[in-house]
Amino acid sequence: MTANPFEQPTYIVLNAPAPIAQAVKALRRRFDPERSEMPVEVTLTGSNGLGVLMPDQSPDTVFDIFDRIIAESSPIKVKFGPMRSFPDTNIFFLEVKPLEEICDLHKKFAASEIYFKPSPFPFEPHCTVKLRGNISEKNTRDLLAFQLQSPDVILNTVSIYNLDLSMLQPRLLHRANLGEPIR
Q1: Is 108 helix (H, G, I), strand (E, B) or coil?
Q2: How far apart are the first and last CA of the chain?
Q3: Which residues pair with 126 in a beta bridge?
Q4: How many Cβ atoms are within 10 Å of 116's Cβ, its own excluded?
Q5: Beta bridge partners of 96
Q6: What is the pLDDT along the chain (183 residues), one digit of tens a residue?
């Protein structure tokens, strides 16, 4: 019998397009090298608002519900930036605006029959640049001064990843494009 993939922390994310992903990975190589090659994304579930997927669910059922939500949702036009940090943390991220359509997609998952662990943090769409470790005052200033000149970009790919905590390597479980019919 195969182990349930949701035993590892599992997230639903909007994947960032290549130009944004390249810029974020360059920043990560400087400020958070351990995570530099992880996917660049806007987390919909798993870090704030909704926690990671509950493990006691059928993957086929989760993927079916996910596909239906994604097929019924449109691609989202956004801009990334400026850089911010969560209060009293060393977590730095790019804002993602406008928030409304991303929040609406998050709410669709919250109202679905997919089950999530609770999260103590309210949902705030963002793209994490630096997550772990200490940071010097100079690097803090450098990060907060960074200005990404983001054009409008389209977020249209949504993925379900789980994270092997021992290696910090995500594993893609499922992916679909917003607004595309279910195959």
Answers
A1: helix
A2: 27
A3: 95
A4: 19
A5: 80
A6: 357 889 999 999 999 999 899 999 999 999 988 888 889 999 999 989 999 999 999 999 999 999 999 999 999 999 998 999 988 888 899 999 988 999 999 999 999 999 999 999 999 999 999 887 788 889 888 888 888 877 899 999 999 999 876 666 789 999 999 988 776
